[in-house]
Amino acid sequence: ITQTSGTCEKAIQDHLNLRGLIRAYRITGHNIADLDPLGINTTETIPVDLDVKKAGFTDSDMSRSFLLPSHTHIGGDRKTLSLSQIETRLRQVYCHHIGLEYMHISDRSKRNWIRERFEEPGVTEIKTEEKRMLLARLVRATRFEEFLASKWTSEKRFGLEGCEVLIPALKTIIDESSDKGVKNFNIGMPHRGRLNVLANVARIPLEQIFCQFNSHLEPDDEGSGDVKYHLGACIERLNTATNKDVKISIVANPSHLEAVDPVVQGQTRAEQFYSDDKEGKESMSILLHGDAAFAGQGVVYETFHLSDLP
């Protein structure tokens, strides 16, 4: 009886240790995520919370199978995994190329939604044809910026260099949303990358964009200076990925860039109202922010509060 009791106590303690290890990865795993594509920061100090031995396990436990807690999805269809497999999958989810930080969210349903989307095995795998499409879109974005830089070397630009992945990201959002029934997309964004979005997302004719760089423009003429980066556009076109018609509206913005945020939300709400889209499934807004503006400007937080309006 004493031996059985001791075995049960160890099994319970191991299960609690495992739950603690999984929770530690969810809370602090992003601190050692591989976010440096250049490999400059090679020093990696593993937090104490993520050390398997500090969690109460030994080397002999690495090959043991453990019953996975019901709140985790790292096993997929499997209910048990060895401790070595559990550690590997936790590192793939929380310490790979995405820094996932969400445990501070108070709403449990939102935490569970994020957890399910990221912990499921194979969720980040991309098919070969999807990789080719993403590469093609990335090349278009890169070549566009390279052309502007070589053609107008002395012109003031707000290019997308270093963040060209914005274009395939935006187009993927539009593709997925269009597939689910969204027809109208209202985009609010700062100067940086605006011309690239106009050319490769809205598909505005390139001659309309390039004429804004006319060196003979006077200061008061449309397109002079950085005015081209304030311009908006609205276009209806066929989305070739879903074979559905979509309307893409890039809202013109003032020099105070984030002032466009509530305007975009208001435009989207008006479209939902006049099209009798009571559930908001046909019109959506996409807002892009600069890092400093997102963290420091009050209008950004005030715009978030608009989401709670009826």
Give an account of the 3D structure.
With 310 residues, the protein is an alpha/beta fold. The chain is 42% helix and 10% strand. It contains 10 helices and 6 strands, in the order αββααααβααββαβαα. It has a 4-stranded mixed beta sheet. The chain is elongated, with a radius of gyration of 25 Å.
Order of helices and strands: HEEHHHHEHHEEHEHH
- Strand content range: 5-15%
**Overall pLDDT, averaged?**
87
Low-confidence stretches: 221-225
- Class computed from helices, strands and strand pairing: alpha/beta
**Main beta-sheet strand count, sense and barrel state:** 4 strands, mixed
Report how far the terminal alpha carbons are from each other: 62 Å
Report the helical percentage. Answer: 40-55%
- What integer value in Å does the Rg equal? 25 Å
How many β-strands, per DSSP?
A: 6
Tally of separate helices: 10
Strand order of the largest sheet: 4-5-3-6
Gross morphology: elongated
Summary tags:
310 residues; alpha/beta; 4-stranded mixed sheet; 10 helices; 42% helix
Give the SSE layout.
Layout: H1 2-28, E1 65-67, E2 80-82, H2 83-94, H3 108-119, H4 128-151, H5 166-179, E3 184-188, H6 194-200, H7 206-210, E4 233-239, E5 244-250, H8 260-274, E6 283-287, H9 291-296, H10 298-305
Parallel strand pairs: 3-5, 3-6
Antiparallel strand pairs: 1-2, 4-5
